[in-house]
């Protein structure tokens, strides 16, 4: 049994192709990509407009979406925004986070993304206690009740109460991604200090693992637990993957960084988003954050540096020379008044550019991509700093490289993940297919397919329904006004 889509026009091998027939097997993996087929075969769904490989959102913090449109009243800075963000983080528990993430991932699919790198650091209960290690309520006062409790809930019982609670937040995110149909690389984040040489604040307690060994042990446990619950099989049907992240040079001591060079797979890090981070790093270590990471052996082609906004020429040479990936988040960087990073210079030095929506001021793969080129034009006074082809590559192949996922191109052996854009809307009418990346918005996404299955059609999720309704549930779960 195969699933087939005939696309009027699609991005294949770095160019626009007409009459493209995509065939996927039962696992949702592409088995054939044929071009020049004039009409849709009777067993294929006809897809009109222009089809792109699914966008890869290489940097997300799902719960930050709940702050959208609520933080603009009093001006402020990145740091004052962060205070409001912590107040939302404090409300999350595994159940509510699952509800929030399901809505956010559904919006992401509607916005043109089919994969996400979830940079996740809200690991534990509010007081920092790891889930699965809490003492059952009342057992301290009543040991008999504890014994009864164990009798009532034998190991392996399938009911909800007996579910393993270790890694509960991570499981909630992964399940939300799988149920929405977005491919996730869960970037399990190490967050040990509140600032360089400073303990975590009470609101950061739930992010921390105490020591680097604490993080490495939990990370190994998570990797094992996910391998069991979400085995990685054929490219199309594998939706959940684990990676690692260093929150930032603020949150992980330099002495601990070499441990990340021991890990296999992608490593992500927030890098030089704010000048204050660079200054603190210089005064503590006498070097820039990039230099500190470089000396620790973690600046490699497996590294994704997120933001990379305030860099020196030396920093650019280090990141480019190692062929690291840079995750630019132009809409968030504009929203938080971070600045405009040197994306063109990084690309010229050898780095790979990808895109992320970070705190989700918008979840629109098109606007995010346009933001990259807009920033470049504004800071350089020149047009075409990134060609339309380079912009599409950043959104697709660049992100696939960042997250090490078998996506990013309509190619045999990769996942059948794609989005269709309307070419006849009032926004896109007249645009050349190869330039539509600069004119369409998420409103023009008519169809999102992942693993060969339709996930969102005309803004409605195929299985979860109205995405606004999912958000109503998410705001209710956090007792926030929607
Ligand atoms: Zn971030």
TrEMBL record:
Its cofactor is Zn(2+). Pfam families: Amidohydro_1. InterPro entries: Amidohydro-rel, Metal-dep_hydrolase_composite, Metal_Hydrolase, Metallo-dep_hydrolases. Residues 50-454 form the Amidohydrolase-related domain. Transmembrane segments: none annotated. Gene3D superfamilies: Metal-dependent hydrolases, Urease, subunit C, domain 1. Residues 147-165 have a biased composition (Basic and acidic residues). Signal peptide: none annotated. Residues 127-165 are annotated as: Disordered. GO terms for cellular component: cytosol. Keywords: Hydrolase, Metal-binding, Zinc. One of its GO terms (molecular function) is metal ion binding. The keyword Transferase does not apply. This is Formiminoglutamate deiminase. It comes from Brevibacterium linens ATCC 9172.
